[in-house]
Amino acid sequence: MVDNGAAIGFSLGSFCQATLRVTDMTNEGFDYLTLTIPFIAGAVGWLTNVLAVKMMFHPIEFVGIKPFLGWQGIVPANALRLAGTGLKLVTSQLLKVPELFEDFNATTFVDEHGARIRELTRKSIAEKAAEHFPQMWNALSPQIKEQVFALAESEVMKMSADVMEHAAEHIEELLDVEQVVTDAVVADKELMNRVFLTVGSKEFKFIEVSGFYFGFLFGLVQFGVWILFPAVWVLPVFGFLVGYVTNWLALKLIFEPRLPKKYGPFTVQGLFHKRQVAIAKEFSEIVSLKVFTASNLFQEFSKDGSREAMMAMVRSKAEALIERYKSNPMAAMMMKPDLVAQLEADLLADVESEMYREEGMIYAFTDKSEDIRQKLVERMAVMDPEGFENVLRPAFKQDEWKLILAGAVLGLAAGIVQLVTMFADSVL
């Protein structure tokens, strides 16, 4: 065990040595540039942290000579991986797609969005009847024609409702939301930047500003060491340490501790976790507006596999509808095989055209952006700390050593410049 008296004696000795050193420097002509050391250390801490944040997000594309010489922002370079761990958290833990359609009422939905289907049905009936049975059709009274239209509309609307109900029940087979995430990230190279900058805006600001305060405090130590040992290595080494420690400490304080901890009269918690409710709102807002948009979901729903599955259902319903008409004696006389095929093809074309029209029935069906936002806000706000941290932490975790090392190297360079430009006469 170290003797307390010896420790106190050593401390007093060091203090006296520093005092004598300052006295000597004063007698020799005190270099007042020495007083700038803490402030320069603060500036270095701030600058390295600012550059570290910039390097996370820029440049969007790789600049330099691949694979070794150059740089690409950490987030854009790992956009798909980050989307896989951060955004897909939505579908793996927070939101199951079938939940969005639990209260879906197909009949009500078709009634609200089926005006064009009614129009197309009337138009198709009138055109086909006039083409194939002109005399009989023209001989019908307006009242009878209206009955024919009403019956056809009713059947087609019921068929459409059956198809949409089938879609809601089999939504996981028809809509690959993980692919929606991937496609959104590939289509918009700055998307992940916007997600992380929006969600972590205050945390990134803290990284930048804290660099000065931590750097200044570290600079006070540097100042004391320089007074005692004004060696050529002191400023570069401390510059390296300032750049390293300020970046490391800022990242540490963002995420730790996850839960509030009492230290005497102070309560400490990682900044990210302290803002959980606000971040839940910000994350949900940007994800619903930029990723799970009606347009993106509609595009995924319209891909060949999903579209073919939907149209197979439509064909099945259309065939059943035509079979019912063929059982009618009068219809049986007129329903020649080639005419049946033509009517079925026309009906399918009309229904598909309307269903997959931009902002048509399928578009309205997949417009769940607001529902997604609300559910995400509610559930993210009460997530456990570890799961919540995974929203933003992946942007740092795997490559945070690069940010810390970059800060250290920049700090080293700043220390060398400081030595050469300000203290060269003292030590060189």
Care to give the gist of this entry?
The protein has 428 residues and is an all-alpha fold. It is built from 26 helices and four strands.
Write up what this structure looks like.
The chain folds into three domains: 30 residues; 198 residues, no CATH class; 147 residues, no CATH class. It is built from 26 helices and four strands. Strands 1-2 form a two-stranded antiparallel ribbon. It has a two-stranded antiparallel ribbon with strand order 3-4. Strand 3 and strand 4 form a beta hairpin. The longest helix is centred in the middle third of the chain and has 28 residues. The N terminus is likely disordered.
What key attributes describe this structure?
elongated, 26 helices, about 75% helix, two-stranded antiparallel ribbon, about 425 residues, mainly alpha
- From the spread of the alpha carbons, the general shape counts as elongated
Radius of gyration: 35 Å
Supply the number of helical segments: 26
CA distance, first residue to last residue: 41 Å
Number of strands: 4
Q: What is the mean pLDDT?
A: 78
The number of domains is 3
Helix-strand topology string: HHEEHHHHHHHHHHHHEEHHHHHHHHHHHH
Major sheet: size, sense and barrel closure?
2 strands, antiparallel
Runs in which pLDDT lies below 50 for 5 or more consecutive residues are 1-30
Q: What proportion of the residues is helical, as a percent range?
A: over 70%
Instruction: Estimate what percentage of residues fall within beta strands.
Output: under 5%
What structural class do the secondary elements suggest?
Answer: mainly alpha
Spatial ordering of strands, largest sheet: 1-2
